[in-house]
Amino acid sequence: MAVFSRPRQAFAIASALGLALAATACGTGSDSKADKDSPECAAYKEYQGHDGKKVSIYSSIREVEADLLQKPWKQFSDCTGIDINYEGSAEFEAQLPVRVDGGNAPDIAFIPQPGLIARFVESGKLKPASAATKAMAEKNYSPDWLKYSTINGQFYGAPLGSNVKSFVWYSPKTFKEKGYTVPTTWDELIALSDKIAATGQKPWCVGIESGDATGWPATDWIEDLMLRTQTPEVYDQWTTHGIPFNDPKVTEAVDKAGAILKNEKYVNGGFGGVKSISTTSFMEGGLPITQGKCAMHRQASFYANQWPEGTKVAEDGDVFAFYFPVIDASKGRPVLGGGEFVAAFADRPEVQAVQTFLASSDYANGRAKLGNWVSANKGLDINNVANPIDKLSVQILQDPKTVFRFDGSDLMPAAVGAGTFWKGMIDWINGKDTASTLAFIENSWPK
C-alpha cells in the first residue's frame, strides 16, 4: 500500500508554520585527494575501487540537518573517490514518485514511509539491496526494523535515522517538589493523574492542531495504546486491515486513550477543557509544563526542540521524558516510532557501496557525535550520543526487551492514515462517540 504523506513531524511543523522551503543541493566529492592507503582510509578499504564515480541521494532532510547528515560521509567519499551529490527537498514525498515514474530517479532515496517502499517495489523501480548491504543491516538492526523494508521476502535497504514516540514529557523539578514518582505501569499513571487532579491542577496538557495535518498527535495515542492493550501481531493486523478498524480490539485501545484525553478532570491544563485539544497547536501543547499549569504531555522525542530557549532538557532539568508505561509488563516493552530507509533505484557497484556504508556502525557513530540524532543501529555507542533525550531514545531502541513498531498511520493507505484517521480523531475529541468514529474510518478503507 502506498503512503505519500511527508514524515509526520516534518509535515506537521511545515503545515503549522506555513513554511515553503526551497530544495538544498550539494555534493561531497573527492576534491581533497585522500591517500587511499593512509590510516584514515583503512576503515574504508572494502568500499574502494570506485574512483571518479558519482552517486546521487535525495531526501526530505534539509538545511542544518542536511549539513550534519553529510559530514560523516565526507571521509568515506575522500577515501573511496565516490562523489556523493545530496539534495534535500520540502517536496520530497510529492516529487520522488514523479521523478521515479519519469525515468529520473535518484540513485538513493531516504524513504520514511514503508508503504512508499512497497509502492516502488510493486512498480519494479526499486533495486534489491546487495548481499553486503543485507549482511551489514542484519548485523546492526533488529528484525523488527528490517521487516519494514523487506517486501515479498526481498530486502531493499537498512534504516538510517529514527525517532521514539512512546514518551511522556514532565518536569523533574516539579515531580521532586511534589513528591511524585515516575510511573512505570498504566495503573500507576492513572493513579498519579488522579492524585494531581485532586490538587486542582490538570495532570495533562494536549494539542493536536497542526494546520492541514490536525489530528495526527491523537493517532499516536491510539497507536501506543494498541501496542499496550494488544499483541504486536494484532497491531500488525490493524495497520494492514487484517482486522477492521472498528474491531473490538481497536475500540478497547481508543477507549483507553479516552480515559485520559476525554476526561475533563485530566485535560487540558493551561488551555481549557477537552474540546480545546483540537484547537491547541501540537507545538505549544506541552508548554504549560514549564508554567506549572499541567504535569504531563505525551509526545515524541523530537518535541525536545519545542521547549522555550533556555529550558534545560535533562533528567534533573526543567523538562524531561519518561517511557509511556505498559499495561501488562509480561507482554514486553512496546515502542512506537518512525524513521527513514536507505533505498536504491540503481544497483551500480558504487551505489551499493554507499548503501552498505550507510548501514554501518561507522556512519551511525559519526553522525551521532554531531548531535541531535537517534538511530536504532545496534553498533551505535551510547557514549557518542550527547543529548539526554536522544540518549534515552537510543537506550530504549537498543534494549533487547523492546518490541518496536512503526507509526501505524504511516503504514496505512494515505486516504486513511493521513486522512480519515486524522479527521476521525478530531471529531472524537470534539464529542463523537468511539463506535461512530471507528465505523467512519473503517468505511473509508480502500476496497
Characteristics:
ABC transporter substrate-binding protein; 18 helices; disordered N terminus; 447 residues; alpha/beta; D-Maltodextrin-Binding Protein, domain 2; Bact_solute-bd_prot1; signal; 2 domains; 13 strands; transport; SBP; 7-stranded mixed beta sheet; globular
Structure at a glance:
With 447 residues, the protein is α/β, with parallel strands linked by helices. The chain has helices at residues 8-17, 63-70, 74-80, 92-101, 114-122, 131-140, 143-146, 172-178, 186-197, 216-229, 232-239, 248-261, 349-358, 361-368, 388-398, 408-411, 414-429, 434-443, and strands at 24-28, 54-59, 83-88, 108-111, 150-151, 154-155, 159-164, 167-170, 202-204, 294-298, 320-323, 333-344, 402-406.
Could you characterize the architecture of this molecule?
It is a single chain. The protein is an alpha/beta fold and 447 residues long. Residues 1-24 have low confidence and may be disordered. The protein has helices at 8-17, 63-70, 74-80, 92-101, 114-122, 131-140, 143-146, 172-178, 186-197, 216-229, 232-239, 248-261, 349-358, 361-368, 388-398, 408-411, 414-429, 434-443; strands at residues 24-28, 54-59, 83-88, 108-111, 150-151, 154-155, 159-164, 167-170, 202-204, 294-298, 320-323, 333-344, 402-406. It is built from 18 helices and 13 strands. It has two domains: 8-163 and 337-406, 3-Layer(aba) Sandwich (D-Maltodextrin-Binding Protein, domain 2), CATH 3.40.190; 167-335 and 408-443, Periplasmic binding protein-like II (D-Maltodextrin-Binding Protein, domain 2, 3-Layer(aba) Sandwich). α6 runs parallel beside α13 (349-358), α10 (216-229) crosses α12 (248-261) and α17 (414-429) runs antiparallel to α18. Residues 1-25 form the signal peptide. This is ABC transporter substrate-binding protein.
